[in-house]
Every structure is written in C-alpha cells, then in structure tokens.
Amino acid sequence: MTRVSHTQHILGHIMAAAAAVAKVLLRPCHSSTNFDQKSPDSGFGTNGHSQSPILEGAISGVGLNTPLPDISTVNLPRSAAARKRRRRKKKSKNPWQDDEEPSPGDTKSTMLSMSIRRPLTPLGNIRTNPTTGKEGDFDDLLTYLDATLVSQWLAEANKQVTDIATWCYKGDNFVQFAHFWLSDFTAEKQQEIFQLEYSIVLDHLTVAFAAGREAGKVKHRDIIHFLLAVLKEYPTKLLASVGAYMFLDYLDVLSSERRDTYRRLLANVRCSTQVKQYAQWTLAIRSFALVSMWHAVLNFYRSLLSDTSALTRVLPVPMAVISKTDPYPQRMYHAIRNGFVDVVKYLLDTGKVSVQYRDDCSRTLAFIAVVHNQPLVLQHLLQMTPQPDVNESAKTGNTPLHSAANSGSVSVTRVLLEVKDIQVNVTNPQCEDATPLHLAVMHGYKDVVELLLAAGADHMVKMGELTANDIARDFGHDDILALLPRTDNS
C-alpha cells in the first residue's frame, strides 16, 4: 500500500478501531425507563428531525458502522417532563447556570481574546452536568447535536490526519518539530496555542448545539463540561509539565499505523452511555478535536519555517521517507546527527529507544554520537543508567575512541577520556591491532595525540610492525614526532 493510499484511510482505521471499543462508553445511564427495543435516539436523528443520510454516509465511510456488541437493555433518556422538573429544581440550587454567556465569535482573533486574555473556566470549577446530574452522562445533551456537522468535521479531519502522517514520516521532519517544541517554543507559548485551539474546537461544538441553545435546553457550560470530558487531557495534562511529551506522543500516534494505539487513544474519555449512536458521536468528536488541534499546531510551526526571520533552521540533506513499522531508531539517528539532546532525551525517557540500542553495524548510541561529532549528546548518553559501554567495538573492530581519533574530533575525544573505565590502548584486530593513538598519528591530528598521550596512551604498542613513532616519521608528521617519547629508532 502506498503512503498516499494509507493516509487516505487513516481516520477510517482510527474510527473503526474506536467503534470496536465503543462498548467502553456503553455503561448504565441510571435511567428509570428500560426498553428491550432499540432506542429511537440510537439512529442518526437529531434536534427532533429524521435520520441524516449525510452523516450515515460519512460514518459508514470511516468505519463507524462496525457492529457493536448487542445491548440487551437500552435505557432511554428521561422524558421531557422529567427533565423540566429536574432543571427547575436544579436552577434554584445552581445560580451559575444562568451566568451571562460569552459573546459569540468565529474568528481566531475572537477566540484569542476569549481563551487567552480571559482563560476558560478551570476544570476544578466545572460542576457535574446540570442536565443529567450524573458525571459523564451526556445523553440529554447529545439529543440536540447537529449530526450533519459531525460528518463535515470527520471529512476535514480525514484530510488533516493525512497531511500529518505524510509530513511526519518525511525525512527528519518529526525530529525537527520535536526539537522546536521542546526547546524553542516556551511553555507559556504552548499554553497560549493550546488555549486558542481548544477554544476554536469549543466554538465548533457551540454551533453544533445551536438548536438546543436557541430552545433554552442547552447551556454554554453544558458544552464546556462535555468537551472537558471528551478531551480529558485539557487542561490538567496538556498545560502541565508532562504536556510537551504528551503532545509529541499523540502526534506520533496520529501519524502512525498502530490501530491498537488508536483504539486506546480514542477510548480515553470520561463519558458513559447506553446509546450506540451517542457513543460513536462522542468518539467522532474526540477524533475531530485531537486531529484539528494537533494539525493547527503543526501548521503554526510550518508557517514559522516559511518565515526565515522568525525561525532559523539548518536544512538537512534530503532523506527518504522513514520506516512506517518502526520509526524510532531512525528518529534517534536524526536527533543525534542534529545534536538535539532534548529529542534524544525524549526518545529515551518515553521508552521509544533503549539506551542499549545497537544499529546494523553494532554501533551503540554513544558510538553514533561520536561519529557525528556531537559531544553534548555523548555526555547525556554517558550519564544514563546503565551507561553505554564505550569500549565495545562495532563490526569494523573500532571502538568509539578509535572513531574519535580517526576523525580528529577533540571534543568527543575529551568526553570519552573522562570515562573512568575507558581503554586508551584498545586495539582493533581487523586493522593490524591499531590503537586510537596510531590512527591519530597517521592522520596528523596533533591535538588528539596530545590528549591520548596525557591519558596514558602507549606509543610503543605496534600496529603491525610499526610503533606510533614509526608512523609519524613515515608520514612526515614532524610536529607529532616531537610530542612522542624518543625510541632507539627515532
């Protein structure tokens, strides 16, 4: 399957997986009315109208018609009269229910004013859904959902998730964004953009419940409470210290092919219902919220890349598309090559790559850091537990110290020599028992030779039949020969 054909069906896979676990949401609603027949609200009808063929087609197209487990007993939402009595009773107890609602707005500038300059109500101040009186029970609210809008959201989300997947798996795009997100974009800026995009999703939901609001059946706080249950990561996690890693983890999931991970991600809501259609709508709304927010942040970053005055980026050599089955080793390689300690730390901290990883050439992560002359990355890796074995050789027979000496890198050589158990005179049996000193002398790297000698390198060890002095003399490196202790032949 080509990348394009795969990404065109990504959201379908997500929603099909979500439908398979919709039973997680199918919990008792504690209603007093029980039926052994299908609920009239389990179809596509909303706002008192008949079934919507548009939504039926959209959901069918993304796999939401996947059969769910049979429900032996379906509890219908309470009657209209019962709802009115309950609302009148609660109205006297909950004066906040009649708070003045925010003025409407559709543009990002309006949302910026609403959400950033006047923050949304904190999660701790949001009370139990006033319509149902039960935590996580939104059946009465969902009765007024405009289903045709949900189908439109899914169509847009499908395009967005295709774009996310294509972009994230091209070259080192994911790694470059991760570095920007972890180091260049401050926590305050992350909070601002989260608040902005969250408020835009809230605005979409407000429009979807317009009929209920006009009829006085749905309050703005009902919608806020519902969105907090559907997108439970906001604000307690996304705005906390774990938010940066969480955002990258979710971006990884949205751009991958791991259906089981999709399933777990979409099922992570604080909602309960016995109505199959409400469960599917809830998961569809969560999918739309996640994809639209994550895509918007990604677009913000890409807009910065197009403005060289706003963000300077060193463009890498063009690279092929990353492996879809296991992208993490390649992302680690890109992170090390670019010297992104923050991304290296993220991949290690989240368990995506082990500190004991070896590539196809049996090189450790520390070895790869040496190859790419990244001393800061090397220092970070050597602080890990367990510490990478700096004396371990690759398939070529070279150790990291051989590689550092061979390339003349003073900075990584110095870092390696600070390791307590470093073997300065380690030999490569595949190269006539060459030591790091032999290689540094051969290439004329005077500074590296000085470091090795200071660390106890033995100039009398032979590479084949030649000592370091012989090599310096044969290659005409008189300045290095002057550094080496004299022998009988020099």
Q: What is the strand tally?
A: 2
Percentage beta strand:
under 5%
Q: List unreliable stretches of 5+ residues.
A: 1-8, 27-86, 88-133, 309-320
Helix content: 40-55%
- Our count of helices gives 24
Order of helices and strands: HHEHEHHHHHHHHHHHHHHHHHHHHH
Structural class: mainly alpha
The biggest beta sheet is recorded as: 2 strands, antiparallel
Count of domains: 2
> What gyration radius follows from the Cα positions, in whole Å?
31 Å
Mean pLDDT: 78
Basic shape: rod-shaped
Biggest sheet strand line-up: 1-2
- First-residue to last-residue Cα separation: 66 Å
How does this structure look, described?
The chain starts with a helix and ends in a 7-residue tail after the last helix. The chain has a two-stranded antiparallel sheet. The chain has two domains: 303 residues, no CATH class; 156 residues, Serine Threonine Protein Phosphatase 5, Tetratricopeptide repeat, CATH 1.25.40.20. The protein is 52% helix and 1% strand. The longest helix is centred in the middle third of the chain and has 30 residues. The chain contains 24 helices and two strands. Helix 2 packs antiparallel against helix 14 and helix 5 crosses helix 9. It has 490 residues and is an all-alpha fold. Pfam families: Ank_2, FAM220. This is SIPAR domain-containing protein. Keywords: ANK repeat.
Briefly summarize what is shown.
Keywords: ANK repeat. The protein is an all-alpha fold and 490 residues long. Helices cover 52% and strands 1% of the residues.
